[in-house]
Fold this protein.
Amino acid sequence: MRILFSGLTFVLLTALTFHQLKSQSSVKFAVIGDYGNAGPDEEAVANLVKNHNPDFIITTGDNNYDVGSSYTIDENIGQYYHDFIFPYKGSYGNGAAYNRFFPSLGNHDWGTPGALPYLNYFILPGNERYYDFIKGPVHFFVIDSDTNETDGRDSNSVQAQWLKNKLAQSSSRFNIVYFHHPPYCSGFINGSEAVMRWPFKSWGVSAVMSGHEHLYERLSVNGLTYFVNGLGGNLRSIFGFPLAGSQVRYNGNYGAMIVEANNDSIVSKFYNIANSLRDNVKILPAVKQLTLNAFIEGFYNEISGVMIPDSVKIYLRESISPHMIIDSSTGMLNSSGSGLFSFTKADNATGYFIMIKHRNSVETWSSAVNIFTINKLDYDFSLNQASAFDNNLVLKGSKYCIYSGDVNQDGAVDASDLSIVENSVLNSGNGYISSDLNGDNTSDAADLSIVENNIFKGVTVVRP
């Protein structure tokens, strides 16, 4: 039975703590799995974890052996981890000031009908069987991979669709999914659970963590890192034939993962209970890719519909004034006006203005903020004038183009640009030079004409 006033306190303190940890740029957390069997082995793992002083703990299931009973749950969990749990209703200590313990359900937790002892012991977000939370740069998604889960466990289930939708909305640098039954595992006893091979990578997941097999393994499958961590203190398993993608295998002793997450990387280490480092891996944020279409006025031939390719620099700028630069990428716009640009500092589900700069064209901004969804974004400046802020584009044939003529990049096409081009024409300038506005590698009358026309129009940069 739940204690209502403690639940209310939990909600209030969790809201405060959520805000504090969300704003942090880094967090440290421990990962334990298949641990809930009271005794010296579990105690040794708990001591290891506490010596590393993590901000919080997550579990990959089997928190309460053997059958998830209410008679054993406090002995198996609270005895060793009460100072991470809030609200703590057991008999081993005072508990934590706010919740720092985020378990996932295992098959042994479901050993009692409805997994009620587990659900009554913890107060967790969402429906408590599967839920999500954010700490620092990481968005965590907890899944129930057991056959008893009423919302299903295959990739088309209600639970899976919840995960897919949540991931699409996540703006965190990293998305970690964890649950009990491993999609990939070289263990001999339980091995892989193929039904849990959801399309995690295409949904935007950074890493997958699981347990069930009582060993440690790290695998890379289709470029995504999978961890199996079941050495939390209840017996040890053995390995079978290594799966393709298996990179590290260890079952020599019990242990835990200690993970540090920063804005630029996640560093995951596995230590055994002798505090001996057995694995160390770095995970980088997913690269965000922008597919951009834009045409440069002087370089685009409206008769042939072909543009002379040239490089541009794309900036992502904050949606709120003063629109600070978040990231930039230099790449080539091809003859069709298309280019692919990669960003390492941008986040999903976060609004950015797109700003395009070319060596002798007017800096041009997107008309509104845009977001990356699962690391992808498409934007086309050429389809209509309203795709640029304040309609700052010129129509050539059927394509809207960014204005050429800002040779000195001072934000306006004016007499100073005309002077540069005139001097270059007089000196027979040629090659890859800024005064060549139509991309024919020569400064001539055609370039002068572009500058003069845009001076007459009063072309300048227009910013939000």
Summary: Residues 86 and 99 are 4 Å apart (CA to CA). The two ends are 55 Å apart (CA to CA). Confidence is low (pLDDT under 50) at residues 1-23. The helical segments are 4-23, 40-51, 73-81, 116-121, 158-169, 200-203, 415-426, 445-457.
